[in-house]
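> example.struct
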């Protein structure tokens, strides 16, 4: 899971990973762990002049980095994507820097747009799950977006996981038993999207009251409509700790005149619920995997999709964190890391099984994975492969004026 990436780096740095290697190898491993690739090794931000503007439906990768960490020298911002359908925009996740990236993307589409109306086209925001690297810029989107027209045309609809319902178990490794830690906010230890949003409004009540009373702004709470996604009855589901991603059919979560959004549960234990989303419009279909290990629920959701945006972790990077010899504890943590995410080559396998026409790799772990390594997904995938980069624009469906 996402927080385990940071934990793994700390563990590797404090244990034999660097101490037992030679000085040169240690520096190389440290560079790899901390994303310290030279800037020249990082792909330049993609041009938006690739013809995507000629499509009525466009996918924009706002941020393509995975994990709650900063990697100096990386060109990647926190995970977030936007789908533009006609004149409306739909957003998936809101990682570090996502609000500014969205404003940048919308301004590039409409250079003469009024900055106080820039976010008026933002129709809905969907959270795949509530790990910090997927939601940390949410308060920024709301509070800074308040000045940029968020919710002014139509209320911004926000949908995401509801409360987990029970705490996850304490992760145990052989030979290193851990005691039960103190519960954070025991009265509400696993809040959902509605409670998270209420917490933001409470935390910034001084700002909200000042601006409503002194500036006569509309109450921000009236510009946002927030809902926890209700799960359908799922045969075989027992509890979040036993079956966090039971075999299931995709289910409807939201729709408007432009898009129909369906979802499914995916493998990101111990997170629950952890969703993947599919957006279907007249122009085509785009699927967002969220954070997940290889998962047949996702294959089912992404069947024959025009675009599958899939997360990836570089398994070689994980191997570098934990050089041999490995004890049982290290092996367990390594397995834990990889089972909650999808390797580059497995992402290709998933896209091939689903029959997705285009595979876009995002939520990249670590941040400095090169495009050449991401292209390894093509070993098991016969469609179009796009190594994701921040602010890349990808057309979906037919160009304007093209025949059926």
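> example.seq
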């Amino acid at each position: 899971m996402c927080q385990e990436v940071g934990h793994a780096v700390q563990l590797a740095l404090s244990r034999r990973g660097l101490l037992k290697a030679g000085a040169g190898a240690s520096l190389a491993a440290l560079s790899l762990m901390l994303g310290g690739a030279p800037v020249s090794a990082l792909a330049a931000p993609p041009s938006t002049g690739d013809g995507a503007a000629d499509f009525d439906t466009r996918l924009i990768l706002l941020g393509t980095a995975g994990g709650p960490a900063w990697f100096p020298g990386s060109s990647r911002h926190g995970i977030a994507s936007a789908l533009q359908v006609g004149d409306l925009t739909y957003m998936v996740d809101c990682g570090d820097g996502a609000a500014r990236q969205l404003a940048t993307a919308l301004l590039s589409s409409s250079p003469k747009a009024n900055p106080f109306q820039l976010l008026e086209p933002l129709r809905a925001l969907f959270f795949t799950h509530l790990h910090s690297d997927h939601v940390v810029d949410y308060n920024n989107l709301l509070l800074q977006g308040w000045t940029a027209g968020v919710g002014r045309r139509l209320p911004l609809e926000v949908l995401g996981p509801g409360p987990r319902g029970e705490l996850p178990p304490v992760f145990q490794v052989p030979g290193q038993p851990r005691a039960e830690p103190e519960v954070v906010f025991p009265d509400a230890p696993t809040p959902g999207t509605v409670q998270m949003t209420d917490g933001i409004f409470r935390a910034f009540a001084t700002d909200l009251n000042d601006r409503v009373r002194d500036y006569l702004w509309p109450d921000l709470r009236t510009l946002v409509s927030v809902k926890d996604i209700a799960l359908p009855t799922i045969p075989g589901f027992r509890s979040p700790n036993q079956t966090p991603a039971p075999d299931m059919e995709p289910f409807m979560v939201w729709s408007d005149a432009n898009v129909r959004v369906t979802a499914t549960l995916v493998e990101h234990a111990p997170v629950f619920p952890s969703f993947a989303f599919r957006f279907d419009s007249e122009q085509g279909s785009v699927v967002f995997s969220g954070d997940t290990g290889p998962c047949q629920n996702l294959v089912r959701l992404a069947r024959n999709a025009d675009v599958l945006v899939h997360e990836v972790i570089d398994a070689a990077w994980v191997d570098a964190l934990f050089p041999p010899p490995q004890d049982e504890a290290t092996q367990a943590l390594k397995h834990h890391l990889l089972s909650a995410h999808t390797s580059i080559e497995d992402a290709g396998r998933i896209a091939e099984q689903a029959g997705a026409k285009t595979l876009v790799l995002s939520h990249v772990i670590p941040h400095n994975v090169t495009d050449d390594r991401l292209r390894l997904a093509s070993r098991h995938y016969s469609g179009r492969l796009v190594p994701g980069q921040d602010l890349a624009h990808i057309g979906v469906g037919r160009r304007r004026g093209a025949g059926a």
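> remarks
The first strand starts at residue 55 and ends at 63.
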